[in-house]
Automatic annotation (TrEMBL):
<dbReference type="Pfam" id="PF00005">
    <property type="entry name" value="ABC_tran"/>
</dbReference>
<dbReference type="GO" id="GO:0016887">
    <property type="term" value="F:ATP hydrolysis activity"/>
</dbReference>
<keyword id="KW-1133">Transmembrane helix</keyword>
<keyword id="KW-0547">Nucleotide-binding</keyword>
<feature type="transmembrane region" description="Helical">
    <location>
        <begin position="127"/>
        <end position="147"/>
    </location>
</feature>
<dbReference type="GO" id="GO:0140359">
    <property type="term" value="F:ABC-type transporter activity"/>
</dbReference>
<dbReference type="InterPro" id="IPR050835">
    <property type="entry name" value="ABC_transporter_sub-D"/>
</dbReference>
<dbReference type="InterPro" id="IPR003593">
    <property type="entry name" value="AAA+_ATPase"/>
</dbReference>
<feature type="domain" description="ABC transporter">
    <location>
        <begin position="434"/>
        <end position="644"/>
    </location>
</feature>
<dbReference type="InterPro" id="IPR003439">
    <property type="entry name" value="ABC_transporter-like_ATP-bd"/>
</dbReference>
<dbReference type="GO" id="GO:0015910">
    <property type="term" value="P:long-chain fatty acid import into peroxisome"/>
</dbReference>
<feature type="transmembrane region" description="Helical">
    <location>
        <begin position="21"/>
        <end position="38"/>
    </location>
</feature>
<keyword id="KW-0472">Membrane</keyword>
<keyword id="KW-0812">Transmembrane</keyword>
<protein>
    <recommendedName>
        <fullName>ABC transporter domain-containing protein</fullName>
    </recommendedName>
</protein>
<dbReference type="InterPro" id="IPR036640">
    <property type="entry name" value="ABC1_TM_sf"/>
</dbReference>
<dbReference type="GO" id="GO:0007031">
    <property type="term" value="P:peroxisome organization"/>
</dbReference>
Length: 646
């Protein structure tokens, strides 16, 4: 007690003289600056390599609002949309809830007055009124919660559809990971980030509009009862607290964005393990994977710990200003009628009836508590706004990259002065043959693999492509398939449906056995081509997989075919797929490496008998005999195209 008195005296003495007042203000400012420094000291570290780009990620500034506006237009497309209607309904419910709270405050005052004056009838009446308010209030509360969640899922659906539309347009889904290096985990952006953004946005609408509405309505009511000084003092206090909090607040948005990125990397480790379990098991790579997973997890843990410690300091400061500080100010306001400048007027109007004063006190404090809560929520929602800013910048970036790719603009680190940066383009010409005229093969890193490639493959020109690893054999097909840009020269090519590509590791989508053969056709498309399951069975016989149909329960059987078929079986399925599509040109990129030489030969002969022109990349010389031309690349940019003399 003595110590407390002593401290009080010291504080009184400190603020007594002008110099000391200045010293006190100085000390407070120094503490605030210290906190600001402490909370923001690592901001640049989290911005990482892309520091310049990232430091404003999560900041609440004009850029954020303009990005948010762009995204909001996607999820609320027009004033007549379902979303606008829901937002209008939400706004009406928010007003209704505030009005109900004001009415309940008056009834609360009445209940306490009835107790103080021991008026049982009035007490019963007020309690009944409270019970009557309970029904609409609960309904409105529940409806608000329902609408918030509903909006979140609608926003998510709209945004996901919008992004997917861009992501799956043309070859953007390929280019985003193979030609551009701006987004390392598009899957994370298109799933979790959209979900979190949508939830953040729908919550924020209520978290911001409701408090603003409450502040206006409660202040108006309170001003009628205690004068404008009351709401002004409390709003002033919160404004001051808000400014201080904003100053010392760490960049939570940036931290959230970084957290999402870390989570994405961690998920990628786990999905690599699932997707490549067999290879990892053969390598006994579990310790390596464990190490990778643990290291990635530790990055998450360290980052979350940093956020937690920053939240701890912010939380302490928040409660000091927003909770306890505000309570003191609130009591000062409640005392205004009886201690303030108009006290004599008030006391003469109420007389000595303490019941009236108590009723006013309860009603006013109830209004004040609601007002304080509303302002508090508005101050705290600044953090939500920062989180929304983080997600907004992630989604905006994804949207911009997708749009760039749609227009053929890529960005990645590459060799200085590389052709990949140039906007010069060669041209594609429709034709019934495949012909390259002076076409350079350039990798996305800017390496020129072949300077000028020229050859012509007509129907029946079965071509065998040879060359050392990494010389650009598959890249040639990437240019033919328009996956990589064509920088110069001319490529003559037939429509895509006349060419079919089979890679070494074919893609087997989740679906039925039939889907594996007819991919990317649907069952309806297959029926429209008048192809039956019986026909598919015939094709399966050619690749010697007909027993699989019975063993696996028919063409309708759904399995994870990637996990349950052997390497050779997968390749045979892909060759069966080729037979189903029966293209004019088949591009066979090491696609029989897991099939026996005899079976491979029989299948190759069958392709030729079907009139399919073969373009094969293989290191197996035994396949050469099914071809009449060779394209030989030397790995140093040189090449030869010649006829095989029989
Ligand atoms: N998405 C990519 N980004 C950057 N470089 C790439 C990409 N894809 C391939 N490359 C590079 O392009 C070069 C040619 O690759 P390509 O796949 O054409 O080789 P290849 O001749 O088919 O080799 P292999 O016989 O080993 O299959 C390689 O050096 C490879 O590293």
């Amino acid at each position: 007690m003595k110590l407390a008195n002593h401290l009080l005296n010291v504080i009184k003495a400190m603020v007594a003289s002008r110099e000391r007042k200045a010293a006190t203000v100085g000390a407070i400012l120094a503490i605030l600056y210290g906190l600001h420094w402490f909370q923001n000291r690592n901001a640049s570290k989290y911005a990482g390599v892309q520091k310049a780009k990232r430091t404003d990620r999560g900041s609440v500034n004009m850029k954020f609002f303009s990005q948010l506006w762009t995204l909001v237009k996607v999820v609320v497309p027009s004033l007549r949309s379902k979303e606008s209607l829901l937002l209008a309904l939400l706004s009406i419910l928010l007003v209704a809830r505030t009005m109900l709270s004001i009415s309940i405050s008056s009834v609360n005052g009445g209940v306490v007055k009835a107790i103080v004056t021991r008026d049982f009838n009035s007490f019963l009446k007020k309690i009944t009124s409270l019970a009557m308010f309970a029904v609409p209030s609960s309904l409105v509360n529940s409806a608000l919660d329902f609408l918030n969640h509903k909006l979140a899922i609608i926003f998510r659906t709209r945004m996901t559809r919008y992004m997917n539309e861009k992501y799956l347009k043309g070859l953007v889904y390929y280019q985003i990971s193979n030609l551009d290096s701006r987004i390392s985990n598009p899957d994370q952006r298109l799933t979790q980030d959209i979900d979190k953004w949508a939830t953040c946005l729908s919550n924020l609408y209520s978290n911001i509009t409701k408090p603003i509405l409450d502040i206006i309505l409660f202040s108006k009511k309170l001003a009628d009862l205690v004068g404008w000084e009351g709401p002004s003092v409390i709003i002033g206090w919160y404004f001051l607290s808000g400014t201080v909090i904003r100053y010392i607040s760490p960049p939570f948005g940036l931290l959230t964005a970084q957290e999402q990125q870390n989570e994405g990397l961690y998920r990628a480790c786990q999905s690599d393990l699932v997707n490549h379990a067999e290879e990892i098991a053969f390598y006994r790579g579990n310790d390596w994977e464990k190490d990778r997973i643990n290291k990635t997890l530790m990055v998450i843990v360290r980052h979350i710990n940093t956020i937690l410690s920053k939240r701890f300091f912010m939380g302490t400061f928040d409660s000091m200003l927003v909770k306890y500080g505000a309570t003191m100010v609130a009591y000062a306001v409640l005392g205004l009628p009886v201690f303030g400048p108009n006290k004599s007027k008030y006391i003469s109007s109420k007389g000595v009836n303490t019941g009236n004063i108590t009723r006013d006190y309860i009603r006013n404090s109830s209004l004040l508590i609601n007002l304080a809560k509303a302002i508090g929520r508005l101050v705290v929602s600044y953090k939500d706004l920062q989180s929304l800013s983080g997600y907004t910048s992630l989604l905006f970036e994804a949207k911009s990259v997708l749009e760039d790719l749609e227009q053929g603009k890529y960005k990645r680190t590459m060799i200085e002065g590389s052709m990949f940066n140039s906007s010069n383009r060669g041209k594609y010409e429709p034709s019934d043959k495949i012909a390259f005229e002076d076409v350079p093969i350039v990798s996305p890193n800017g390496d020129i693999l072949v300077q000028n490639l020229s050859f012509t493959i007509e129907s029946g020109t079965h071509t065998f492509i040879q060359g050392p690893n990494g010389c650009g054999k598959s890249s040639l097909f990437r240019i033919l398939g328009e996956l990589w840009p064509l920088f110069a020269g001319t490529v003559h090519k037939p429509p895509m449906e006349d060419m079919f590509y089979i890679p070494q590791r074919p893609y087997l989508p989740h679906g039925t056995l039939r889907d594996q053969i007819i991919y990317p056709h649907s069952l309806e498309k297959m029926a429209s081509l008048k192809i039956s399951d019986k026909d598919l069975e015939e094709l399966m016989k050619v690749v010697k997989l007909d027993d699989l149909v019975d063993k696996r329960g028919g063409f309708d059987q759904i399995e994870d075919w990637n996990d349950t078929l052997s390497g050779g079986q997968k390749q045979r399925i892909a060759m069966c797929r080729l037979l189903y599509h029966k293209p004019k040109f088949a591009i066979l990129d090491e696609c029989t490496s897991a099939v026996s030489i005899e079976a491979e030969g029989a299948i190759y002969q069958h392709f030729k008998d079907e009139g399919i022109t073969l373009i094969t990349v293989s290191h197996r010389e035994s396949l050469m005999k099914y071809h009449n031309h060779v394209l030989k690349m030397d790995g140093e940019g040189g090449w030869k195209f010649y006829k095989i003399l029989s």
